[in-house]
């Protein structure tokens, strides 16, 4: 049994990762484009985690960038300044700590739903934003720098050099792949069955004996720690973190990307991120009023494609594989 | 005599000043179909909703097997074995009929916190779900999406989902609402079978069905218990006729 829910998804994922694997060979060390792709892939992980939360679990948040930023900050604060730490160990730390923070935050915000949840997540994210923006210790608005990138050895064997753009690109691609597989697996699991049910009809799920709060909390923690992982990768790529990573417009932009790709489709998050960033890049070079044209284009796309681009692809390829 | 399973003692549910349930005492026995009738606004649905934990009681006690369960949370009532169906069809429209029952069955079997095991791998759940569908006669519809089956079949599915939670008590809120004659007959014969295994509490407006099915009937008026008796006695009771048909001086 495959993990794909439609033929289009299968084709897209195969194509995407096949192209993704070989694209550095064609770019021949053009680091600008390789870096650009890495950034968008990191963004895709972030958008995917948001897409799962909003589209699959039905929890709408405007504060997801808080975890994106926290992921970067947790690493930068924890890691010693002038010593290369192990990437995998710190991946574990970052996800564990951000997961714990998400647990506490989730206990508060998941008591609300709908518009109230949007407001309270936004409020908490802004609080965190100003906490870091005003803190002297954590660099204020300038943020913190990552002076030495982690090494990636497992049992003394090292395959990846994070200072090498191509290596870093492959790490991002691998992360996105793992992230996709992870979300697909939990969507198809017994847990996913309850998540599907409580998204569609929470009252009925309660009447069937489910404590939906627990399920929402788990989904929230998983999604948030993956968002933090994306933020961690971002910090590694650019070598710094600053509060703008967790400003509310990052959350909103990610929501637009998820919407564009097709909410709840997970693979749509990849399409949405690439589409948005691609359009951004393209239109930015045509005119300085890129925001205007971008806005019009997105409104048109969202209006015409009710289930996003993923929904359009699914309709093209027939629903079930 | 059959054993009492579910019991309400002095049960009250107030909505502000409105006394939807007022000092209600009622007992439901195993393997009996006990219907609750009464004019609109008598508090029948409120009673069901309170008995299944959806509305917390204002005061009074609900006893289940003699044990008070009033303090339990809404979702815990179902785990105890009190299943309910809804007046308005309340199913998962995007899922198949089988999947709807699987969601119900999985609560009982467990494993809901398993993030990695494929949901279809749990045979036990699928089996219970299939059995529930078979009980209501929906086997042929197992793989059809719930939104695509007829209204009558959705009502059947509603009952199948309750059955899949392996309940002891079935609280059925107007299972025949909006159904044609033939569809109602299907439900009637289904309930006749079910009442040999379960304690069923039925709220229903279709009086022919109620008279045909009930072992015991309770008449409620204005949130209060009027009378509980067998079908024949209720039919001839002047109090009931009064409550239903009104006094002569009331104009219809």
Automatic annotation (TrEMBL), chain A:
It is found in: Cell inner membrane. Keywords: Cell membrane, Membrane, Transmembrane, Transmembrane helix. One of its GO terms (molecular function) is branched-chain amino acid transmembrane transporter activity. One of its GO terms (cellular component) is plasma membrane. CDD domains: TM_PBP1_LivM_like. It comes from the Bacteria. The keyword Cytoplasm does not apply. It is a multi-pass membrane protein. The chain crosses the membrane at residues 12-27, 33-53, 65-82, 88-110, 115-133, 168-187, 208-234, 254-277, 289-313. The keyword Transmembrane helix applies. This is Amino acid/amide ABC transporter membrane protein 2, HAAT family (TC 3.A.1.4.-).
UniProtKB/TrEMBL annotation, chain B:
It comes from the Bacteria. One of its GO terms (cellular component) is plasma membrane. Keywords: ATP-binding, Nucleotide-binding, Transport. The keyword Transport applies. InterPro entries: AAA+_ATPase, ABC_AA/LPS_Transport, ABC_transporter-like_ATP-bd, P-loop_NTPase. The keyword Zinc does not apply. Gene3D superfamilies: P-loop containing nucleotide triphosphate hydrolases. Residues 6-247 form the ABC transporter domain. One of its GO terms (molecular function) is ATP binding. This is Amino acid/amide ABC transporter ATP-binding protein 1, HAAT family (TC 3.A.1.4.-).
């Amino acid at each position: 049994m495959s993990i794909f829910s439609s033929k289009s998804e299968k084709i897209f994922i195969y194509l995407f990762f096949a192209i993704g694997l070989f694209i550095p060979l064609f770019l021949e060390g053009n680091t600008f484009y390789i870096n650009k792709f890495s950034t968008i892939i990191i963004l895709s992980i972030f958008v995917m985690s948001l897409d799962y939360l909003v589209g699959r679990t039905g929890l709408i948040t405007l504060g997801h960038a808080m975890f994106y930023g926290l992921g970067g900050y947790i690493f930068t604060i924890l890691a010693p300044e002038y010593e290369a730490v192990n990437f995998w160990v710190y991946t574990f730390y970052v996800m564990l700590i951000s997961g714990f923070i998400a647990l506490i935050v989730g206990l508060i915000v998941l008591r609300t739903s709908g518009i109230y949840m949007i407001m309270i997540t936004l409020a908490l994210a802004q609080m965190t934003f100003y906490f870091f923006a005003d803190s002297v210790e954590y660099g204020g608005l300038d943020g913190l720098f990552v002076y030495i990138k982690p090494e990636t050895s497992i049992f003394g064997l090292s395959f990846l050099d994070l200072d090498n753009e191509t290596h870093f690109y492959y790490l991002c691609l691998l992360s996105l792949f793992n992230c996709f597989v992870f979300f697909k697996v939990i969507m198809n699991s017994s847990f996913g069955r309850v998540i599907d049910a409580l998204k569609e009809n929470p009252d009925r799920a309660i009447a069937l004996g489910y404590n939906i709060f627990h399920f929402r909390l788990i989904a929230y923690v998983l999604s948030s720690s993956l968002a933090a992982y994306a933020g961690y990768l971002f910090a590694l790529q650019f070598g710094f973190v600053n509060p703008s990573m967790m400003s509310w417009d990052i959350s909103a932009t990610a929501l637009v990307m998820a919407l564009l790709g097709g909410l709840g489709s997970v693979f749509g998050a990849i399409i949405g991120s690439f589409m948005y960033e691609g359009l951004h890049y393209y239109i930015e070079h045509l005119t300085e009023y890129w925001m205007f044209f971008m806005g019009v284009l997105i409104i048109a796309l969202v209006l015409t494609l009710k289930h996003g681009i993923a929904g359009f692809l699914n309709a093209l390829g027939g629903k079930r594989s | 005599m059959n054993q009492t399973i579910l019991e309400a003692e002095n049960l009250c549910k107030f909505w502000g000043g409105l006394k939807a349930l007022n000092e209600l005492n009622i007992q439901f026995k195993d393997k009996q179909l006990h219907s609750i009738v009464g004019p609109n606004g008598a508090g029948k649905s409120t009673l069901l909703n309170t008995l299944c934990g959806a509305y917390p009681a204002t005061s009074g006690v609900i006893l289940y097997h003699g044990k008070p369960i009033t303090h339990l949370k809404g979702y815990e009532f179902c785990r105890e074995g009190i299943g309910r169906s809804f007046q308005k069809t309340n199913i998962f429209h995007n899922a198949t009929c089988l999947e709807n029952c699987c969601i119900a069955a999985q609560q009982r079997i467990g494993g809901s916190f398993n993030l990695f095991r494929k949901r279809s791998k749990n045979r036990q759940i699928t089996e219970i779900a299939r059995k529930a569908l078979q009980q209501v006669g929906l086997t042929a519809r197992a793989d059809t999406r719930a939104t695509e089956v007829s209204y009558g079949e959705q009502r059947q599915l509603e009952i199948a989902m309750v059955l899949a939670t392996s309940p002891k008590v079935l609280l059925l809120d107007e299972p025949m609402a909006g159904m044609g004659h033939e569809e109602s007959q299907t439900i009637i014969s289904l309930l006749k079978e079910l009442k040999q295994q379960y304690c069923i509490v039925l709220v229903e407006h279709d009086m022919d069905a109620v008279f045909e099915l009930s072992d015991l009937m309770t008449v409620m008026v204005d949130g209060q218990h009027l009378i509980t008796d067998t079908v024949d006695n209720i039919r001839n009771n002047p109090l009931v006729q009064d409550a239903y048909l009104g006094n002569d001086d009331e104009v219809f």
